[in-house]
Amino acid sequence: MTTDSAKATFDLTVRSHVYDTAMRKCMPPTITETASALNCSPDEVMSSFQRLADAHILVLQKGSGEILMANPFSAVPTAFLVKPGERTYYGNCIWDAMGIPAMLKEDASIQTSCACCGTAMSLEIRRNTLVEAPGIVHFAVPAARWWDNVVFT
Amino acid sequence: MLLFWSEEHVEKWCRDWNLARGEIIPLEKCWRLAESWYSPDRREPDWRKSTIAEAEALFAEIGFTSQFWRLSPS
């Protein structure tokens, strides 16, 4: 795969596979899983993941190059559990947790806690509407600096 | 972006972690942001990230108009 056009086409396929897997299996795929599914080498997948990360579409784990975030999905457990029915997804933050039922176009409950006191909090998305509930959202970092350290926003 | 019971809990959290207070938004606005941001199907080949102008337009539509939400250089 040498031309920019071929890489761009491959990246579209990889992105589609990542999101299709995350939506169906509750978690983004690994490098090995992606290479196997797309019948290509792990090196090609790693390079594609990196290009998608450079474009702020994925966030990768340092060292391994595996996916950490395919927003709104987290590849690791977080404090934002999203449950459409019996399945469990993990969101990266409360915005992403709400983004999971929006992306799936399904009803879901979000189970998390107050970041200050740790008291359990639950939200419900029903028929594309947020059921009224107590709570507020705090954005700690101005929008222009979100990608300085996307793990802390 | 974290969830809190109340503004008082945000204030305490900021003090405890020695962080400046950012922006507090109601849950309903966060849902509108999430719904607009994540509804487009990222599996589709024609999906693309929003441009800075498109993202700022969305923020403004929801009512996020302060400097905090600016993405373009001032």
List the helices and strands and how they pair.
The complex is a heterodimer of chains A (153) and B (74).
Chain A lengths: L3 H22 L5 H8 L3 H13 L4 E2 L6 E4 L2 E2 L6 E3 L5 E2 L3 H11 L3 E6 L6 E7 L2 E2 L5 E4 L14
Antiparallel strand pairs in A: 1-2, 2-3, 4-5, 4-6, 6-7, 7-8
Chain B lengths: L1 E3 L2 H10 L6 E4 H12 L13 H11 L12
Search tags:
heterodimer; A: 153 residues; alpha+beta; Arc Repressor Mutant, subunit A; Bactericidal permeability-increasing protein, domain 1; 2 domains; five-stranded antiparallel beta sheet; three-stranded antiparallel beta sheet; 9 strands; B: 74 residues; mainly alpha; 3 helices
| Architecture per CATH nomenclature, i.e. the level-2 architecture of the largest domain in chain A | Super Roll
Number of helices of chain A: 4
Show the largest interface.
Answer: A-B, 47 and 45 residues
Strand-residue fraction of chain A? 15-25%
Commentary on this structure:
The complex is a heterodimer of chains A (153) and B (74). Chain A is α+β, with helices and mostly antiparallel strands. Chain A is 35% helix and 21% strand. Chain A has a five-stranded antiparallel sheet with strand order 5-4-6-7-8, covered by helices on one side. In chain A, a hairpin with a 2-residue loop joins strand 7 and strand 8. In chain A, helix 1 crosses helix 3 (42-54) and helix 2 (31-38) crosses helix 3. With 74 residues, chain B is mainly α. Chain B has a domain at 25-74. Helices cover 45% and strands 9% of the residues of chain B. Chain B has helices at 7-16, 27-38, 52-62, and strands spanning 2-4, 23-26. The model of chain B has no long low-confidence stretch (mean pLDDT 93). At the A-B interface, helix 1, helix 4, strand 7 and strand 9 of A face strand 1, helix 1, strand 2 and helix 2 of B. Strand 9 of chain A pairs antiparallel with strand 1 of chain B, so a sheet runs across the interface.
